[in-house]
Design a protein that fits this description.
The protein has one domain. The protein contains 3 helices and 8 strands.
Length: 141
């Protein structure tokens, strides 16, 4: 792996973090909270949920990292990095220029064994339980 930063990652860096799952268990869901303070003092919390509720697959393997960006997912196609839509990046850059501070918090994590940690203000557990119940109901029908 190259130690050079790709132009795509450099563009997304101001709105991104790496989450490192240091647990021996995979994460099947987690919520990130972006807490921003505008120049006028207004504080806003934006919740971003990462979970595959259709089959509760791991979203972050044990002892692995996950790239998290406010502007959306960075994906790969034929070995090349694919950026989120340019309009999203431009909107995020404009938004970031209006902020005096931005912090990132982990609101909740759900492990493969069903245990969970965190405040869960974004209601990740409720959403995952509802999705699992809906999935079970659809397979019975």
């Amino acid at each position: 792996m190259s130690s050079e930063t790709s132009p795509e990652l450099a563009t997304l860096a101001p709105f991104s973090v790496l989450l490192w799952n240091r647990s021996p268990q995979p994460l099947i869901g987690f919520t990130v909270v972006w807490v921003s303070t505008a120049k006028d003092g207004m504080v806003k919390r934006s919740f971003q949920i990462f979970a595959d509720t259709s089959d509760l697959k791991s979203v972050v393997a044990a002892d692995a990292t996950e790239f998290i960006s406010l502007v959306g997912a960075l994906s790969q196609y034929n070995g090349s990095l694919v950026m989120p839509a340019q309009s999203r990046v431009e909107s995020a850059m404009e938004w970031l220029s209006e902020m005096v501070s931005v912090s990132i918090q982990i609101d909740a994590v759900v492990f493969e064994d069903g245990s969970a940690l965190g405040q869960d203000a974004g209601q990740l557990l409720v959403r995952m339980k509802s999705a699992a119940a809906a999935e079970r109901a659809s397979t019975r029908a």
